[in-house]
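Sequence design from tokenized structure. All designs in this work follow the same two-part layout: the structure record, then the generated sequence. An example of the structure record is given first.
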């Protein structure tokens, strides 16, 4: 018996090694043989395969009895990282960093929140195009989206997007698809309306003088002080007609390059995606929406009950999380300008989303998030009244807070392209 078991183990190991060697050979061939790579690429799941899977997912979701579905509380958490001031966002098991580029005083460790929220809206739009095309039976071979901000104020963002599509459908069919996609995109519908954000401050008085062990790491209070000194130094240079010096003020130079562009574009969307502006595309194999801003990429996905793999937060969750991220960023800058020391800065957000929207009896239920609540946790040695004033100033100066609380105009157009990998 032992000999048989040992022989089985040896045989299994040999098969495993053989399979591994075969996979290595395939990988090496894919790397070294361009024609083999393109042949393998064409055999991968196509956009038309994605449309079939999406249609099945929508039909399965619609088959769920309405009384089984219940409103969902969206939760997100954002914090200002102590040493660097970057924003750390947590949504369920998903996490990402938001950061400014070098010319805005950041370290370029992630997408800046304005660009991120614009690309999140683009990602929701392109995903809605896929769903509506699947339901209408419109074939698509390639799909990508670029989006730009045309407004010039905190209240007026003025978003304009271009959908790049390879499809045999007629122009009238694609125009109908555009209207349906916009009508059924939660973030599009959310953005063209004004919403109220209920803000609550949770204040903790911290010590005037911090007493920490000698080996402590610099915290948020030190970061705010550094931002204050940097801002004052830059202001003096500007007043004297000079440009800020990156060697003296931590890389804060107006003529310093923002960051590198992303030279890689996916085969299904080709090179018409903007390498430096907010854009999005969908991976047809997984159905995952990829947000792209310069060299940064972030995933948005659907939960499994809607045909996704839950590899990233949904577009709605991303938007709520980005509100908290932007608020912490602006609060940091406001604290630096007003010379207000902060020791902790965290934002907890909730919103309500009802998956029954549009069903019988729920025709008037919004398909976008409602009842947005934001709790701001701040500890500081300054009096509570001063911190409340800081929160109010942050609300007035936060771009995404103003995006949410003011109705926006979003215009879109369709441009036909031909996918290179067809």
């Amino acid at each position: 018996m032992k000999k048989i078991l040992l022989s089985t183990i040896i045989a299994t190991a040999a098969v495993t090694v053989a399979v591994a060697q075969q996979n290595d050979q395939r990988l090496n061939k894919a790397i070294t043989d361009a024609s083999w790579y393109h042949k393998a690429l064409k055999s991968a799941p196509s956009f038309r395969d994605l449309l079939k899977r999406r249609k099945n997912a929508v039909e399965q979701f619609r088959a769920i009895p309405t009384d089984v579905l219940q409103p969902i509380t969206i939760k997100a958490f954002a914090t200002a990282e102590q040493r660097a001031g970057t924003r750390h966002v947590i949504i369920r098991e998903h996490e990402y960093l938001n950061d400014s580029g070098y010319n805005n005083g950041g370290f370029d460790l992630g997408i800046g929140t304005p660009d991120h929220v614009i690309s999140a809206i683009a990602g929701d739009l392109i995903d809605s195009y896929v769903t509506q095309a699947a339901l209408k039976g419109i074939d698509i071979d390639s799909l990508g989206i670029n989006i730009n901000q045309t407004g010039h104020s905190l209240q007026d963002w003025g978003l304009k997007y271009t959908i790049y599509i390879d499809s045999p459908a007629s122009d009238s069919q694609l125009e109908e698809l555009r209207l349906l996609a916009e009508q059924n995109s939660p973030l599009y519908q959310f953005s063209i309306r004004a919403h109220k954000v209920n803000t609550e401050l949770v204040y903790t008085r911290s010590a005037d003088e911090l007493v920490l062990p000698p080996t402590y790491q610099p915290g948020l209070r030190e970061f705010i002080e550094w931002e204050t000194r940097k801002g004052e130094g830059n202001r003096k240079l500007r007043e004297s007609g000079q440009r800020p010096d990156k060697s003296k003020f931590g890389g804060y130079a107006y003529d310093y390059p923002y960051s590198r562009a992303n030279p890689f574009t996916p085969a299904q969307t080709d090179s018409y995606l903007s390498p430096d502006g907010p854009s999005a595309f969908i991976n047809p194999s997984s159905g995952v929406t990829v947000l792209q801003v310069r060299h940064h990429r972030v995933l948005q996905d659907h939960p499994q009950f809607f045909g996704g793999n839950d590899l990233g937060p949904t577009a709605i969750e991303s938007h709520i999380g980005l509100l908290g991220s932007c608020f912490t960023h602006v609060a940091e800058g406001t604290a630096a300008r007003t010379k207000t020391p902060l020791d902790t800065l965290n934002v907890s957000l909730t919103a309500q989303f009802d998956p029954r929207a549009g069903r019988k009896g729920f025709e008037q239920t919004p398909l976008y998030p409602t009842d947005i609540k934001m709790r701001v946790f701040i500890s500081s040695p300054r009096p509570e009244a001063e911190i409340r004033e800081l929160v109010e100033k942050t609300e007035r100066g936060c771009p995404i807070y103003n995006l949410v609380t003011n109705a926006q105009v979003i215009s879109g157009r369709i441009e036909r392209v031909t996918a290179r990998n067809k």
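The longest helix spans residues 2-32. We note this feature because it recurs in several other targets discussed in the main text.
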